[in-house]
Amino acid sequence: MITDDLDRLVSFYERVFEMQAERLMPVFAELVLASCTSAIGHSQTAQLFGTDTVEAASNCTVILEFRVDNLGAEYVRLQPLVEQWVQEPTTMPWGNRSMLFRDPDGNLVNYFEPVTEEAIKRFGAR
Question: Rounded CA gap, 46 and 41, in Å?
């Protein structure tokens, strides 16, 4: 993710993920999770990717998705942190219970939990 306010976005994700980011440089941080690494760079780093490749806070198509063990508990825990909820916990047609919120830059984040027998089976090997 590229942002104009690195400290704000890193602080948000540290609270959401309940972990400390690794600040590799003043303009770059990583949050290393068991399943992935979320990298957050200040817009000053955009030049490293080439001209016109990224633009801070302009995402309108990507949803960051994270599987959780207890969606209801996460919803309660995140209430004081999240300013913009897009969807409260809802069971989706494919068997996941899901909630969507926006981070401080407007990026969509989906926390989900498989709840139907089929969805639980599908995610059992992942």
Answer: 8
